[in-house]
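Side project, low priority. Logging it here so it doesn't get lost.
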Amino acid sequence: NVLDGILLFVLSPRPVRFLVAEEFYFHPLLRFFFTAFDCIPVYRRRTHNGEALREAIAALEQGDVVGIFPEGTTADLGRLRSIKRGVGLLALKTGAPIVPCGIVGSAERFPQGARVPRPGRIALAFGPPVAFTKTTEDPIPMARLHATLEIIRGHLRSVVAEASALGEGWAPSLWKRWQVLLSAAIVWPLSTMLSLTAHPNLDP
């Protein structure tokens, strides 16, 4: 969901440089926000995204955290799609560990076509880091890349299940309630702007 990136940005203990689709990155109302936080534009209208991949590799090699949506879309509610090559290429080319995150409830809180989010519970779960050995092979053999993507998909499936379990019967403390309110002060206006620019047939 378009809320996911905003929630991760607000709640992550470290700054995250997200890969952002060009129609969002260069939007007049959003470009200042994305450039201020060193997000990386992804040019989806091109056949290849070599520029985004090179910038993401450079960011990881200098110790930054890069945020990527491995499925490449948020169109399917409740179904884990196949994993795109990008996350596997970044892991194998840099050796940087992957921290899987599962988010449950954001699609119900902010369904496609809505102008503002609906009140309700959203659960996030982070899995343990998953590391792959850095490779110097160029190009990376497809068999190795596919095996890496399947491992990543398995970890994502587990962490989504964990997020689903966390969302059941959760009662926030007073401090958590304040954190939610403070986060909403950022999430609400940004999600509203994103909803006005999102196209239902485009990957976010």
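Brief comment: Residues 142-166 form the longest helix (25 residues).
Revisit when time allows.
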